[in-house]
Amino acid sequence: MAQRAALVTGASSGIGLAIARMLGAEGYGLTIAARRPEKLEEAAASLRDEGFELQAIPGNLSDEEHIQSVVAAHREKYGRLDVLVNNAGVGAGQPVGEITAKRLDLQLDLNLRSLVLFYRESVGMLREAGAEHRNAIVVNTASISGKSGEAWLSVYSATKHGVVGFTEAMNKELAGDGIKSCALCPGFVDTPMTDFVKGAVPADQMIRPEDIAEGVRMLLRVSPGCVIPEIIFQQPGGGLTGQPAG
């Protein structure tokens, strides 16, 4: 049984899978969660082939009962939670006069509401880990669009601004419990989420998912007295930013 454990949402590909792989290599027992069973199982198989201990739980990560079941299954398997990675998210661009309620609700529910509910359900285990080693970590995938609002991506930008703001609030609220939160704010990342723009922006000019994972690895290394509230990842010179990355 692993001495420490992590729960990663949106872990079937891209940033979430890269972070899960890094945490597995660091010796963490893993619970990985994502919406599509076939993609999640493919990711789980690749991680198991590398020798990592894990369980994979597919399902709707914007559903409150499913969120509760994911955290309960993690608790049942590992009995502890040292790192929570709220990575699941979706981006849907529309001009403001054409925003549909369905796409609005989808982004609000998965990008922001889900994150809050995962905190609520996980905070007990995080407090136990924080009491033990003062370095329980919550990683929240935001976006460079969470630092500067983007036209056409207004709802996405708003949800990612919300992620940054909630992360700041959690650092104030949970500091005494040894729980540290960090918002990841990347620009273009070479993931399936950016496939539609790769005709204009070559994948080899994008940030790599492994770059994001290395940023998270740093969070594991710093002392309990050091909080890194956010990390901004961008292309040299600033690069192009008007694109969902989380």
Could you name the CATH class?
A: Alpha Beta
Overall pLDDT, averaged?
A: 92
Largest sheet: 7 strands, parallel
Task: Determine the CATH superfamily.
Answer: NAD(P)-binding Rossmann-like Domain
End-to-end span in angstroms? 31 Å
Unreliable stretches (pLDDT < 50, length at least 5) are none
How many DSSP-defined strands? 7
Query: Can you give the helix content as a percent range?
Result: 40-55%
Helix vs. strand class = alpha/beta
Q: Which keywords apply here?
A:
246 residues; alpha/beta; Rossmann fold; seven-stranded parallel β-sheet; 6 helices; 43% helix; globular; SDR; SDR family oxidoreductase; NAD(P)-bd_dom_sf; SDR_fam
Write the layout of secondary structure elements.
Elements: E1 4-9, H1 14-25, E2 28-34, H2 37-49, E3 54-58, H3 64-78, E4 83-86, H4 101-133, E5 136-141, H5 154-174, E6 179-186, H6 209-221, E7 230-233
Parallel strand pairs: 1-2, 1-4, 2-3, 4-5, 5-6, 6-7
InterPro entries: NAD(P)-bd_dom_sf, SDR, SDR_fam
Pfam families: adh_short
Family: Belongs to the short-chain dehydrogenases/reductases (SDR) family.
